[in-house]
Amino acid sequence: MSVEQAPVQRADFDQVMVPNYAPAAFIPVRGAGSRVWDQAGRELIDFAGGIAVNVLGHAHPALVGALTEQANKLWHVSNVFTNEPALRLAHKLVDATFADRAFFCNSGAEANEAAFKLARRVAHDRFGPEKHEIIATVNSFHGRTLFTVSVGGQPKYSDGFGPKITGISHVPYNDLEALKAQISDKTCAVVIEPIQGESGVVPADVAYLQGARELCDKHNALLIFDEVQTGVGRTGELFAYMHYGVTPDILSSAKSLGGGFPIGAMLTTEALAKHLTVGTHGTTYGGNPLACAVANAVLDVVNTPEVLAGVKAKHQKFKARLEQIGEKYGLFTQVRGVGLLIGCVLSEAWKGKAKDVFNAAEKEGLMVLQAGPDVVRFAPSLVVEDADIDEGLDRFERAAAKLTQG
């Protein structure tokens, strides 16, 4: 029997939640595919994808099935024991990538935390404590723990929390000369997002990633790709490093990996993995059977030629229409990104007003994202239907019209 739930509304957020978020005025309560319904029963099209998470949309039958089946078997045993879904998932990820070994956790920040700790431990074991410096890029985003927020290149997120973790420097993104000038034999790792997500959907140049790979090899440093936002089919390849043809030493994944169920993974080679010996790193929930069962189902659907080819085709559909809308209403100057991670760069007149575009879209029944104040970001389901793309972009055009002619 179901217990009668006490009614809640958006105003409750301001009474009972820590005020570190400013959520939209409506509360989504149900989703199916690329459609979402709020408390009032209003239907919206979802081009936000839970910030590049809902890789198969809402309530996908394969994911609901996997979760329900596992929920009736085993939820949690801790890492004192291993479990079947975790082992199956590790096999799938190892078989599909450069990696030999997987470490599971619950979020992108945790995956990056593990990546950075591994890089420092490898350098410590092989070369000594002097080799501990990490180079990241300006405007990068790697998570919200103290370590990951210090590696992230946005001081607004790391200032005001006491002394920062030392041995971290930041160089401009896509600037190989700057990286060359900064890297040294004290560098243990270079951390790059193949496409900068939070700072505006900025893809790396192939030559930049190739150059970073060469510099890391020359200085015995590890190349870490943060693929939390770009991984699991988002670019039309399973991981973005495949799109670029540049292989990292360590890769972090989360967001899309669980299709909405929290899970993160750090992937690496056997030679590096062996430095995390028993007791050196851990997590209570990481690799739990529920999360791994869902992630297995996600990979079974996403890592197929049909879905990956579909992502590339849908990119073209989005891009062509968005460029048309941007030009017609003078709203943005550029549409950039790869696969179904797309950023529309606002024109001079609309700089700093991404939130206004977000609000206008919501009024027309469309969920979009910002990536900083100057970029409108789209990260829909990878299997979003063409009819939903058309209808969603019709709504977006109506929002653009009202906003610009308002």
From TrEMBL:
Q: How is the cofactor bound?
A: Binds 1 pyridoxal phosphate per subunit.
Gene (UniProt): argD
Source organism of this protein record: Pseudomonas donghuensis
What is the official name of this protein in its record?
Answer: Acetylornithine aminotransferase
Q: Family, per the entry?
A: Belongs to the class-III pyridoxal-phosphate-dependent aminotransferase family. ArgD subfamily.
Q: Which pathway?
A: Amino-acid biosynthesis; L-arginine biosynthesis; N(2)-acetyl-L-ornithine from L-glutamate: step 4/4
Q: Catalysed reaction(s)?
A: N(2)-acetyl-L-ornithine + 2-oxoglutarate = N-acetyl-L-glutamate 5-semialdehyde + L-glutamate
Kindly state one GO CC term assigned in the UniProt record.
cytoplasm
The cross-references to InterPro entries, in alphabetical order and at most eight, read: Ac/SucOrn_transaminase_bac, AcOrn/SuccOrn_fam, Aminotrans_3, Aminotrans_3_PPA_site, Class-III_PLP-dep_AT, PyrdxlP-dep_Trfase, PyrdxlP-dep_Trfase_major, PyrdxlP-dep_Trfase_small
Cofactor(s) in the UniProt record: pyridoxal 5'-phosphate
